[in-house]
Amino acid sequence: MTPASNVDILAIAAHRDDVEQTCGGTLLAMQARGWTTGILDLTRGESGTRGTADEREAEANEAARILKVSVREALDLPDGNVQNTLENRLKIAAVLRRLRPRVVILPYWEGRHPDHYTTATLGYEACFVSGLAKVDTGGCEDPHRPFKILYASLYSAVRPIFAVDITPYMEDRFQSLMAYKSQYATQPGGTGLFVPAEEIRERTFAMARYCGLLAGVRYAEPFVQKEIGLVEDLMMLPVASI
Ligand SMILES: [Zn+2]
Description:
Elements: E1 9-13, H1 18-22, H2 24-32, E2 37-43, H3 53-67, E3 71-77, H4 86-99, E4 103-107, H5 114-130, E5 148-152, E6 162-165, H6 170-178, H7 181-184, H8 197-215, E7 220-224
Parallel strand pairs: 1-2, 1-4, 2-3, 4-5
Antiparallel strand pairs: 5-7, 6-7
Helix pairs in contact: 3-6, 4-5
Bound molecules: zinc ion (ZN).
């Protein structure tokens, strides 16, 4: 997809299909509130057991359509070897200066896959660098530092700081994941490594339901932020305590 203009909320992930698994419902919920959303995938999926990078690009574009994002781009970092280098920070910063998001969503900073937890630090540092006036990222855009950085924590055991109600968007969020037919359709290559297709629906809904139970709604996605929350009116606090 070609970028048309700035985005309000940008989700940055290591791999195509990460956003669909961790914060796709939130992107749909925010788009419905009138915000423009976007996705930046750092790699193109060339090392995956199943599917080629070209197939995954077509699938990513279909998923982007389902998630109603305005922009989806992919950088060329090596799949399976995402490193927090100055070169990579500058590549991400160039995108941040062009798209100028107020909110950036990153993966949580601990996890099984090194690309995921590296993306958390790499993305954070890219947000910092992007705001430095004297750093040249190769484009002509002004420096830009996102206001808020959130970490999508769905695949981490960490207790979320808050959750986003995605109940009306749960099915579409699941369908965006299913757009990756090369990854999730039942097929012989990679059995044993991949969860059978029929189990993915159950797992996806169960995790969203669990997070929803914690937040007093049906389906939700969990997030962590490093800052504390600021409250103006105690009477407006959501989620019942008892
Ligand atoms: Zn991933």
